[in-house]
Design brief:
Blueprint (H helix, E strand, L loop, with lengths): L4 H14 L3 H4 L7 H10 L10 H19 L4 H13 L3 E6 L7 E5 L5 H18 L6 E3 L8 E3 L12 H22 L1
Antiparallel strand pairs: 1-2, 3-4
Helix pairs in contact: 1-6, 4-5, 4-6, 5-6
Length: about 190
């Protein structure tokens, strides 16, 4: 395992957040508070208080900032500036916890934080670990020509190219297979 369980979980959360937005999928997948609550539940974001419209707006804004990190993986300086700006605006209060049957681990958000601040701290720190480990090339945009969703390649050999192997990956493999079939039939 390259990163700790908590870091991998936060990276998955940031990918899910970015991929809810129109910049990644051309339609809004956080249209209302119910969708935001579903995001929180799906990603098991702990210690979240009642959500309101301010949380929705702040999460959407943060989503755009995180999306920018995935757009500059070849520019370490730009990525560092973006990650530092995200983390710098969040109240952080690192503390140990062992909630929900998980072993001791560190949370970086201040207890009682609003959702966006919580995500900025946890996901921002996870992205900082990626930068510090020299692993920026693991932050990617899907290589399918009609997809702009993001992903974090946590595979051992860094071979993940598509946001989801069941959709984009499968479509691209089928297209390549059909192209090979057409080529061999033309011979």
């Amino acid at each position: 395992m390259l990163f700790s369980h908590d870091t991998e979980h936060a990276l998955g959360t940031v990918v899910d957040l970015v991929n809810t937005g129109p910049a990644a999928i051309e339609e809004e997948h956080l249209p209302d508070l119910a969708a935001l609550q579903a995001f929180v539940d799906r990603n098991q974001v702990s210690d979240v208080r009642d959500l309101d419209s301010e949380d929705l707006g702040a999460a959407r804004h943060l989503r755009g900032r995180f999306h920018g990190v995935f757009q500059t993986p070849d520019d370490t300086d730009a990525t560092v500036r973006q990650v530092n700006a995200i983390i710098g605006q969040a109240r952080t209060t690192p503390h140990l916890t062992d909630h929900d049957d998980y072993d001791w681990h560190v949370h970086f958000f201040a207890p009682g934080s609003r959702l966006a601040e919580h995500l900025a701290a946890e996901c921002g720190i996870a992205l900082a670990y990626v930068v510090a480990a020299g692993e920026l090339d693991r932050l990617r945009v899907c290589e399918a020509p009609d997809c702009s969703r993001v992903l974090v390649d946590l595979s051992r050999n860094r071979c993940r190219r598509y946001c989801d192997s069941r959709t984009c990956g499968n479509r691209m493999h089928v297209a390549a297979y059909r192209a090979r079939q057409r080529e061999s039939a033309a011979r």
